[in-house]
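As a warm-up, study this chain.
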Amino acid sequence: MQCVIYKGKRKPGAYLFVERADDFSRVPTTLMQMMGPMEPVMTLDLASRENLAACDPAEVRQQLVGNGYFLQLPPTDYPTR
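Now compare it with the structure written out below.
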């Protein structure tokens, strides 16, 4: 499974994964507005990946199939618990 990873101008450290280049048809409008103008970062073959730097490739694949996108948020500076 191929995907294209984008970064938005308004949300540093956040990355949006979609199945096809420039196909944001399944991404909510509010999310697109929050991210701002999108810039492609890389194309990735998820089928050949067992791990990614900041997320689980199986979860990315599942979200891409189910929702049409996967949003990777930057790590937080503060503990959540």
